[in-house]
Amino acid sequence: MSSFRKRVPATQAKPPPATKLNPHSAQLLVSTGVPSLDDVLGGGLPVGGVLLIEQDRQTGYSSTLLSYFASQAVAAGHRLCIVNADHEIDLKSQLPGWASAVRGSAEKRKAEEESAEKSKGKGDAMKIAWRYQNLPKVDNDGEDKAPSGPAQSVPFCERFDLSMRIPQEVLDKAQVEVLNGDVIARMSSGGEYAGDMYRCVLDKIAALIDGGFSSLKPLPQDQDRNILRIELRSLGSEFWHGSSPTSILQFLHQLRGLLRYSYAACVISFPAYLYEDAGVRQPIVRRIEHLCDAVIELESFEGAYATPADIVSRQIKAEAAGGAASAASQDYHGFLHIHKLPRLNSLTASMGRLSLLHSGGGSANNLAFRLRRKKFSIETYHLPIEGGVTERRVPAKDEGKPNRTGASSPSVGSGAGCGSRPGHKDPLEF
Length: 430
What we know:
This protein is an alpha/beta fold. Helix content is 29%, strand content 17%. The protein has helices at residues 35-40, 61-76, 91-94, 99-120, 168-173, 181-187, 197-210, 247-260, 283-290, 308-320, 324-331, 351-354, 410-413, and strands spanning 19-21, 28-30, 45-46, 50-54, 79-84, 96-98, 160-165, 176-179, 228-233, 264-270, 276-277, 280-281, 294-300, 334-340, 367-371, 376-380.
C-alpha cells in the first residue's frame, strides 16, 4: 500500500442541492424543470444567468414553463421569489406536482391515521403482551420514503406531472415569496421610488442576494450554500410603471450585474408582441435580448399573428403539400425559436456539443413544442408522411375487375398503372 496520500481540505465546500457542473465551461447549472429545455440550453440554466422567454400572443405556454421553474425550486429546496405585477398568483392551483411529494404526503397522512387508531385502542390491548409494548418498532420493508429536505440526495431535475398539484403541507415548508401588483405598487409609492416599480423590485432582489446568496460574502461553517431562483412574469407589460421609457433597460443591466456575483438564477417572461408596429418589432426588443444571457421565443399556432395575405399563402402551401403541414400542426402546438444561448465562462455556447435535440449550435431553429395532459416537451420538428396514414395508397384488388354490367372500373381501365397498359390487367397485381 502506498504511503502517499492526497491532501484534501478538512472542510470542503459542498455544492448547492440539485446542481451540476457544465463539463464544457465548468459553470454551475440548475434545472428549469423541463428536461428538453435543459437540453436546449446546454444542460441547464447557468447560475448567475438570465433566461428571457418571449411570450406568445394569445396562449399561456410561457406560464407553463414558469410553473415548471417554480416547482423545481420547491422540489430542490431552493429559495424562490416570484414577481408578477399583473395579478395575484395562486401557487397551489398553478404549480405542477411530482410523484414523490404526493406519495410522501399521502404516507404521512396514513401514518397519522394509524397512530391515532393505535392510541385509541391502546387501552384495549391484551395484558399478555405487556412485555412487547416497549420494544423498538421496525418500519415496513419495501416502502419508499419521500425525501425530507435538501440535505438528502435531490435529483437535478424532478419528473413533474401537470395533472398533479403540490400538496399544501409541502408548500407551507417551502421558501417562497410572492410579490404581486398590489404589493409592488404599495412599496414603490413612497418618495424614494416615486412610483418606479423597476427600482423597487431591483432593491428587493439585491436585499435577497445579500441575505446569504452572494458569492462575495463567505457563509458560516455550519451553513450550506443554497440557490435563489427569481421569476419575473410579464416584465415590460402595461402594469409595470417606470420613470422613463428606458427603465426596463436599466433594470436588466443592473440585474445582470447583481446575478453575476451570486448563487441565483432568473427567468423572465416578456410580452414582445406589445412592442410591435404593424408586425415589425421595435428596436428596443433587440436591446432587451442583448441584456439577457439566453433568449427563446414561443410561437404558438393558435396565437400567431397573420395578415389575410399570409393566411391565403399558407392555405395554398398546405394544399400543395397534401395537407402535411396541417397534420403537423395537430401534432405540435407551436415553434420554439432560439435567439440566444448562454455563454457564461466560455466564448461559444455548449449547446452544439452537449445537446441531443440540436447539433447546429443554434443556427437552425427546427424545434417545436407540444403540451400534453401530463407534461410539456420540446422536440425536433418534422412533417408527417405525405398523405398521412389514413389515405389508401394501394388500390383494392377488386377495383380492376369488371362489374355486373361488364364495364371495368374507370380508375384502372382509364389509367395506366405500373407495368400495365390501358384496358389490360396489371401483371403486378396478385
